[in-house]
Write a structure and sequence with these properties.
This protein is mainly alpha-helical and 126 residues long. It has six helices and three strands; from the N terminus they run βααβααααβ. The termini are close together.
Length: 126
């Protein structure tokens, strides 16, 4: 399963797509096992300056994977503490997205370099 991060969706919806947007098109056409999490949906839709309905309809085609409960949030906090101890500052949202990806064994497709600082967790980045 590939959990697609906000940064990739932004590139995909951009009028002049970059390599990530092109790869998303390829993944969609090949029916790759894509997924989203609610945080990504919020970030994508809140950033739009156009009618959100067509974008929301497109995003709704893929399953949402969500935190399984308290342990996921505790894992996100642990990731944050460990990253900080290693000299990295990663946002709460990013640590939660990483925790969800780890919980579901998903590979994270992202352009956000902050996630590369989380390699110590075993997070797989596409």
């Amino acid at each position: 399963m590939i959990l697609v991060d906000t940064s990739v969706w932004i590139d995909f919806f951009n009028s002049s797509q970059g390599p990530a947007g092109n790869e998303m098109e390829r993944l969609i056409r090949s029916n790759a096992p894509l997924a989203l999490t609610g945080l990504v949906v919020v970030e994508v839709l809140q950033g739009l300056r156009r009618d959100i309905d067509p974008v929301a309809d497109l995003l709704a085609r893929w399953p949402l994977i969500e935190p399984g409960g308290f342990t996921t949030y505790a894992e996100a906090a642990r990731i944050s503490r460990q990253a900080r101890a290693r000299g990295a500052t990663v946002s709460t949202v990013d640590t939660l997205i990483a925790a969800v990806a780890l919980e579901f064994g998903a590979t994270l497709f992202t352009l956000d370099q902050d996630f590369r600082q989380l390699a110590f967790t075993g997070l797989q980045v596409y």
